[in-house]
Structures are given as C-alpha cells and as structure tokens.
Amino acid sequence: MMNLPYGELSIGQKKCSHGRTITETDVVNFCGLTGNWLEIHSNAEFSKSSMYGQRVVQGGLVFVIGNAMFGFDSAVVEAFYGVDKLRFLKPTFINDTIHAESEIIAKRDKGDKHGIVTAQLWVVNQRNEKVLSCEFTLLIRRERLIVERNPE
Amino acid sequence: MMNLPYGELSIGQKKCSHGRTITETDVVNFCGLTGNWLEIHSNAEFSKSSMYGQRVVQGGLVFVIGNAMFGFDSAVVEAFYGVDKLRFLKPTFINDTIHAESEIIAKRDKGDKHGIVTAQLWVVNQRNEKVLSCEFTLLIRRERLIVERNPE
Amino acid sequence: MMNLPYGELSIGQKKCSHGRTITETDVVNFCGLTGNWLEIHSNAEFSKSSMYGQRVVQGGLVFVIGNAMFGFDSAVVEAFYGVDKLRFLKPTFINDTIHAESEIIAKRDKGDKHGIVTAQLWVVNQRNEKVLSCEFTLLIRRERLIVERNPE
Amino acid sequence: MMNLPYGELSIGQKKCSHGRTITETDVVNFCGLTGNWLEIHSNAEFSKSSMYGQRVVQGGLVFVIGNAMFGFDSAVVEAFYGVDKLRFLKPTFINDTIHAESEIIAKRDKGDKHGIVTAQLWVVNQRNEKVLSCEFTLLIRRERLIVERNPE
Amino acid sequence: MMNLPYGELSIGQKKCSHGRTITETDVVNFCGLTGNWLEIHSNAEFSKSSMYGQRVVQGGLVFVIGNAMFGFDSAVVEAFYGVDKLRFLKPTFINDTIHAESEIIAKRDKGDKHGIVTAQLWVVNQRNEKVLSCEFTLLIRRERLIVERNPE
Amino acid sequence: MMNLPYGELSIGQKKCSHGRTITETDVVNFCGLTGNWLEIHSNAEFSKSSMYGQRVVQGGLVFVIGNAMFGFDSAVVEAFYGVDKLRFLKPTFINDTIHAESEIIAKRDKGDKHGIVTAQLWVVNQRNEKVLSCEFTLLIRRERLIVERNPE
Which residues 6+ apart lie within 8 Å of F130 measured at CB? Predict the structure, then answer.
C-alpha cells in the first residue's frame, strides 16, 4: 500500500494484498529464527489436548507476514515509527491462507520533506475472518526517491 | 520471564534475558520468511547512501526475537492477547548483540483459573541503548499445567 | 515487468528492477536447497587457489533471483514456457549487488485469450556489468484475472 | 555425470541420478530464497481454482535441483557456459519425486587443457514423465585437478 | 538439565524436557544443512519399498535435537568433552514427537574451578519408546559465571 | 567412503572427502534447527570474553557435517548402528574449512546378506588439525541394491 508519496495518500484509501498459505514449513522456520519453541506451536501431541486441538501459528509470524503483505516501497517509506493496538483476534492454523487489508486512518505533515501516515492493518483468512488487527505509523517522503540504475 | 503462575507474578518484577548477535544470516532469512525485501534491509549499495550508511535490521525481526527472549512457558501462558505502544527507538545494525529486559506493569484477575498480566519489554543492544519498547499482555494460568511425559 | 495484460505489452518496452545484495547466506542456503556443494561455491580455501581467487556465486542462484526480480503477476502470467540462450557472462561474487533489466523482444497472439511474449533478461551488478543474459517466454492473459478477496 | 576428464567423455554416454521428493518445504524455502511468491506456488486457495487445481512447484526449482542432480566434480568442471532450450514440459506438484537423466550430445576441443561438452538433461518424475528438458554446456579439464588434503 | 553449578549436581538426578514434533521441514532442512541426501531420508518413492515403508528421520537430527533439549546453560557449561555409546534404538518417522530424558551417572572433580559430569541421555517418542541413547560428558563450573547486562 | 558392498571393503582402507567452509550462516541455521542458542555459539559479545575470544562452531554441527562428508550410498548402507568415542579435540571457528578422513578399522559378517563395518572418522581443518574423532558402525549389504529408474 505504501508505494505512493505523501501527497498522493489520503484518509480512507483502502488496499487488499495477494494471499499466502501459512505452511508447517513457515511455522517451523519461524521457531528456528526466533528460538521460541513454545509447544503450542511446535509439539503436535501437546497441542491435541490444548483448547485448539492442534498447533497454532505464532501470532508474531502472522504479524510479520501481514506487515510484509502490506507492501512498502523504499522510494517513499523513510522510517517505520511503530505499531499500536496489535490484537490477535482469532487463531491461525497451519494451511490457513491469509492476506492483508489496509486503510489509511490518519496523516499529518512533518517538515517540508515528509509526512506521517497511520494505517489500520488487518490480516484476514480464507474464511473471511479477521485474525489480526493493528495500526502502523510510517514516515513517508513527499518526493519519490530516485535510484539511478543505468537501464540500457 | 513468563514461567511463573499468575499468583507468583507481581508488579515491579524485572528480568533480563541472555543475548544474541543479530547476523546477516538472520536478516536474509527474515527477508525470505516474510517476503519483504525492502532495500534498506537487503541492498548494501542502496543502504550506503541512506541516512544510516548501511543495511538496517528489520524492526519486525528485532520485535520477534525480543519477544522470544522474553521467555514463555507453555505450562503457564494460555494466550497472547496483544501488544501496545511498539516503538522502534534506534536502528539495529548487522552484528549488534541484543537482549531483552522486562518488568511487570499491570495484573488483574480473570475468573478463577487465570489472570491477565501486562509487561513492559525493552530490547537493549551491546551499547546499552534501548532499541525497541512495547507492552505485552498475556493470559496466565493460576495453576501450572502438568504435562505427563513418563520420565523413567 | 510482466504485470500488464497482453494488449498493453509492446516490443521495446524496458524495465529495471530493485536491487539485492547476494550474501554468503544466500550462497550457503542455495547449496543446501539444491544439494550441490561444488567447492568453488562452498570451500573458501579451495577457491583461493582457483582462477577467481575466491568463492563464486552459483550461476543458478543468479538466474533464479534475476528471474524473481523480473517480476511476475499471477493475474496476467498464465504459464512459463521456457528459457533460451542462458549465458553466464561474468562471475558474481559474495557481496555483489544485482538487479534485473528486461526488454520485450517478441510477441504473438495465441487464441483469443492469450498471447506469447518473449523478453530479454539481463542481470546487472553494481559495477554496471551484465553478468547473466537469457530470453524468457511466457503465456500472458489478454484479460487480467480478477481474484475476489472481499476487501472491507 | 560430469565427474570424468574430457578424454573419457564421449557422445552418447548416459547417466541416471538418484531421486528426491520435492516437498512443500522445498517450495516454501525457494519462495523465500528468490523472493518470488507468485500465488500459483504459494497460495493453496488461489491454486485450487487454477487450471492445475493445486500449487505448482516452481520451474526454477525443478531446474536448479535437476542441475544439482546432474552431478559435477570440482576436479574436472572448470566453468559453466550456459543453458539452451530450457523447456518446462509438464508441471511438477508437491510430493512428486524427480531424478535427472543425461546424455552427452556434443564435444569439441578447446586448447590443450580443456574441452567443451554439451549434455542433454531431462528431469523425470515418478510416473516416468519428462517434466523438464534443457542442454548444458560446460568447460571440462583434460587432466583431473589434484587437490592435496594430507590424508593420514 | 545442565543449568546447575557442579556442586549442585548429584548422581541419580533425573530430568525430562519439553517435546517437539519432528516435521518434514526439519528433515528437509537437515538434508540441506548437512548436504546428505541419502534417499531413505529424502526420497518418498524409494523409501516406500524400504524395510520401513516410509522416509526415516536422520539419526543425526534426532541426536542434535535431543542434545539441544537436554538443556545447557552458558553460565555453568564450560566445555563439551564428548559422547559415548550413541545408539539408534528405533527409527523416528516424520511427525513423531520426541523429548529428552536424562540422568546424571558420573561426576568427578577437575581442579578447583570445575568438575566433569557424565549424563545418560535418552530420546523418547510419543509411544514412550526410547529411540536414541548415549552418554554425554561435560566440563561444569563450580561457580556460576555472572554476565553483567545492565538491567535497569 | 561407504559406497562399496561389504565384500569390497577391507580393514585399513582410507578415504579423504572434499572440503567445506563452515560459515556464520551454518552456525546460525544450526542454532535455529536445534533450538540451542547457547551463547558461546550465538552471542559475539559474550564470546569475546570467553576462553576462545570468539564464537565457537557447535560440536554437533561439526559432527553432522563430518558424518555427511564421510559419504554414504543408499545402495549399500542398510542401517546406521551407532557412534562411539566421539571426541571434540579442538574448537572449530567460523570460516574454518573442514573435510573428513576415514579408515575402516573393523568388519564382521552378519548373516548371508550383510556385514557390520566400523570406521574411524576424523574431521580435519585447513591447518591440518584433527578437530573431531569418532567411530562409526554401519550395516552394509553384500549385494548392491539395484533401483530401477528407467533411463532412456
């Protein structure tokens, strides 16, 4: 979503990303990357007797994939300020397919080169259930950064 | 930190985790896992001319590793409610070493089996700079869950 | 590049991708994924005495990353027909930064729903040297495929 | 196959590799490595309604694994010149098992230390269907390179 | 288990770890990491006709995960001396869940700062079958190493 | 080494493998795979003040890579019995290059289809230092297993 310069963004703009199936591979690789092997994510036997009856995808994984699906463009995003009201609304299970939906909810000028933009982000599954909700705040350039790459 | 049942947790308790060096491997593997190859994280040439002069570790990676360092125990953590006021205070660079520090800042009863606990989490680097700050809220059991595993 | 329906593509159109630094991590992970540990890619001692004086990035890795940088959109690309004249023009070394450049060089109708498009692809490094060249042929839809995702 | 010096290779020589099952893990890790998350490879819901009815293994993944199965020996292979007529003949699906078959189809001298050898390579699945075909050209040494490693 | 200083360890102490499901992802990633693609681990077709009727998890993978589950603490473990009598008692299959059980079987002083401790380690599956057995010998500190990390 | 049927193996046969540089990527990926983030392997700051002055490659990683370099052939290796006298003789550091050397030290018949073979395995670095030593015992077929794969 954040591939437009500050002046072209306006409150109420919405966008919907492509989708991705969250596989057992993603869950195991995320345990490996973070070092968190909490059994609800990594132990199928333990998880059978949990309230979910199966392993649950890590909330942190849903967040970082949803964040990536949101879509950033280096030419306009200057900095990532923070996240508020991150909520895990429903569990995501292995083989669920998620996509991101977003809407710009606030913007304000910051000097003459940038603006600050806040977007609501939801991660939504194949049953059209919102599984994650949060607000993102970014520093956005007024002018697209031009990177010279010498095309032929 | 969250390896005690609800009754043994009290406001003001602090904990400090082990540390981990964030390597180029972590940064590349995280690009791969999330699918976000924003050039400030993945393009060394582009990053040389950025305000940081080098590639920056993804805020999301610092967050999920800090989260894992925080320490959860399946026997007491029943659910992960959400995160508030997540702020990226300073950049983390490749080869920085981070650890997590936490402090319990709120707790309240929830029925007779659980309580809700909020902790402040900071991720701190080898220069003793806070690079990330957020508040975590978890559902904690009053009684440790006993998992039978037939030790000899 | 291939994010336009067949009718909007024309011979001579050019595009230039973002860039990515090829790290030691990429080289090691690619050895792992393919199972090919040829020493010129994986043994720094052996490679010191080779004609290159150092490890060389796998040609196959440059090809598949260049291919990904080329940019495909599921809504218009129906099938991947093949590749011709794939040539490794210069070695890529660990820490080189590459991007893709492309130009449409042929197109022909295929039935009333598709067309076949051939593009020249180059992978170019930070010294503006072409390191790989090939021709790609794709089956492209005349109408963009609409995927419903229930945005709010 | 390419583990013999130039003089011992002759047109018509054939070889058949071991096999490997292409798993969901390979497909997800390859999306991660390349950064290409085209939905026909990564979104199970999207793929159900495609002409294949399921996710398809990336052609590039079949190519690089087939290439690795082909078998190279650092002691005789000096350089990888290129690939021609790469064709994706049939789709490969998750859990298909593939192996490589090859046949030398051309050779010519190059100076007094090397020769150039072209081999036809096919990747074949467990139903004995050819799924990929291409021609490889390599620079091969006349004398095996001896690497001293001080065996006891 | 090895998170106590030498003086607090005594022969006969037992411990039981958390569990982890060994997934296809772990098996494929371990093939990649080691470079060993022996078909009994990586080729589902080949493995169907083996004495096990399916792919078998690598003994080395069960060993290194069992070793990690055993639990080490940098503050007390100074060095890893070796392993004896490593035996693979039963096969582990994809989707089995394993945990580690250990018992201290020998200890002896080494200077005034350390002791040497030997523990029996078993890896046990969800059917309560011992699948791996070995003896570990470690150099353990008499005083816990204090690492300063400046908690607030 | 273990690519010959039982009858062709004899006590005193030696073999030397190719080499591989152990990278930071291998060390980080192995922490991830095993879940063991002991700071001597993963925290560069902590390791500076250790007796080694730097991070040390995991003994388990040296073992499983040395094991893979040893070389197994599915056509003759029927089972992996165990490992004895595994000793970590010297530390391996990031960017060391290792290879495996082996010698058959015992063999005995087992029924009319197999024999049991024990080999001494050493892992040796680029300074020709033995860093790991162990004994491997394998069940080897008397007749090579023929796998039909329908070569053209």
Answer: F89, F90, F122, F123, F124
CA atoms within 13 A on the CB side of A47: 19
| Confidence (pLDDT) at B80 | 87
Tokens describing residue D128 = 């004995």
Strands (E), chain E: 14-21, 77-88, 97-110, 114-125, 130-141
SS3 category, A141: strand
* H-run or E-run covering F131: strand F130-141
Question: What are the chain B neighbours of F55 within 8 Å (beta carbons)?
Answer: 21
* Nearest-Cα residue of chain D relative to residue B35: D35
Confirm if B6 and B141 have CB atoms less than 8 A apart: yes
- Contact list in E for residue C31 (CB cut-off 8 A) is 32, 35
**Which CATH code is given to the segment(s) D6-21+57-141?**
3.10.129.10
**Residue ranges of chain C with per-residue pLDDT less than 70:** 1-2, 147-152
D64 with C29: Cβ contact below 8 A: no
**Each residue of F39-76: pLDDT tens digit?**
999 999 999 998 899 999 999 999 999 999 988 887 88
Identify the closest residue of chain F to D151 by CA–CA distance: F16
Per the prediction, chain B carries an average pLDDT of: 92
Query: How far is Cα F69 from Cα F122, in angstroms, rounded to an integer?
Result: 11
Per-residue pLDDT at B151: 43
Residues of F in CB contact (< 8 Å) with D are 14-16, 18-19, 74, 99, 101, 103, 122, 124, 128, 149-152
Can you tell me the ipTM of this complex? 0.92
pLDDT in tens, F109-149: 999 999 999 999 999 999 999 999 999 999 999 999 876 55
Summarised one tens digit per residue, pLDDT across range D88-140 is: 999 999 999 999 999 999 999 999 999 999 999 999 999 999 999 999 999 99
Supply the CATH classification number for the domain C6-141: 3.10.129.10
Q: Is it the case that residue D30 has pLDDT exceeding 90? A: yes
* Among chain C residues, CA nearest to E30: C32
CB A116 within 8 A of CB A81: yes
Does E33 have pLDDT greater than 90? Answer: yes
What is the identity of the amino acid at C97? T
List residues of F whose CB lies inside 8 A of any C CB.
18-21, 23-26, 29, 95, 97, 126
Query: What pLDDT was estimated at residue A87?
Result: 97
Using only C-alpha atoms, chain D has a radius of gyration, in whole angstroms, of: 18
Name the percent of chain D lying above pLDDT 90. 82
Q: For position D117, what pLDDT does the model report?
A: 96
Model pLDDT, residue C151: 43
F29: nearest CA partner in chain B: B25
Residues 6+ positions from E135 with CB-CB distance below 8 Å: E83, E84, E85, E105, E118, E119, E120, E121
Exposure pattern of E36-65 as b/e (b: 16+ CB <10 Å)? bbbbbbbbbbbbeebeeeebbbbbbbbbbb
Which residue of chain D has the CA closest to F123? D151
CB contact under 8 A, A32 and F37: no
pLDDT surpassing 70 at residue E147: no
Chain D positions contacting chain F at CB under 8 Å are 14-16, 18-19, 74, 99, 101, 103, 122, 124, 128, 149-152
Q: Do F82 and E86 touch (CB under 8 A)?
A: yes
CATH fit for domain B6-20+58-141, picks 2.130.10.10, 3.10.129.10, 2.160.20.10, 3.30.450.40: 3.10.129.10
Q: Does the structure show a pLDDT above 90 at E97? A: yes
D37/B35 Cβ within 8 A: yes
